[in-house]
Amino acid sequence: MLTRRHALGAALAASSLVLAGTAQAQSWKSAYPELVLAVVPAENASGVTERYGPFVEYLSQTLGTKVTLRVANDYAAVIEGQRNGSIHLAGYGPASYARAIVTGVKVEPFVTTVNNDGTVGYYSVFYVRADSPYKTIDDLKGKNLGLVDPNSTSGNNVPRFALNKIKLNPETFFGRVTYTGSHENAVIALQQKTVDVAANWWNAENDS
Asked: pLDDT for 168-177, tens place per residue?
């Protein structure tokens, strides 16, 4: 059977410029009349707005300054946006957050997502079509694997780690390994049979 692996919860991080002390509150508000919150979508744009809209509104009211939601193309764009100061708040997965820290971006996590049941975190899983003949990992030898993004935890790092644990090199075990660009694209590729198996995240039957 394909193995499910735990991954850490996604976090939101603020650039160090925003995390000013109380005495400096008014000065940073003058410097930043608008804050940009960037996220990489796990679903389509409307889904992102629905998921993050209430949080953006909460931040705007709590901070007393306008917060704008930006949907980023990929994790690298979020990292570079925080590096150059065009993105002030950002949603990260564990892998992309680690990449930001390792590459010298000064960020500090301040909140994480909590599931409906009160737990924190999600799973990284391999999906195959329900009508496919694949039952075990061995059945997928020579088939096409769809990953999400090089900086995706559930769509790249954890799947590669899981395969490495059972001594499988994705580039030699599968016929082709493709980065689809997003979580949604990975599912679409599987649906359209462009790939035979796709790595992605899973949280619950009604939230994946």
From this structure: 999 999 999 9
- Is position 117 within any domain? no
- 178 lies in the same domain as 102: no
**Which segments of the chain have a pLDDT < 50?**
1-10, 16-23, 208
Amino acid (one-letter) located at 126: F
Asked if 49 and 84 sit in the same domain, the reply is: yes
58 and 130 fall within a common domain: no
User: For residue 117, what pLDDT is reported?
Assistant: 83
22-32 pLDDT per residue, tens:
445 567 888 88
In whole angstroms, give the CA distance from residue 146 to residue 69: 28
3-state SS, residue 15: strand
Alpha carbons 155 and 184: distance in angstroms, whole number: 11
* Side chain identity, residue 91: G
Q: Which domain holds residue 154?
A: 122-202
CA atoms within 13 A on the CB side of 171: 0
Q: What is the CATH number of the domain that holds 192?
A: 3.40.190.10
Q: Whole-angstrom Cα distance, residue 114 to residue 120?
A: 5
Pick the closest to residue 88 from 111, 107, 116 (CA basis).
Answer: 107
Q: 106 and 16, same structural domain?
A: yes
Q: In what order do the strands lie in the sheet with 122-127?
A: 5-7, 122-127, 197-202, 144-147, 176-179
Q: Cα separation of 132 and 130, whole Å?
A: 6
Contact assessment for residue 193 and residue 123, using Cβ atoms and an 8 Å cutoff: no
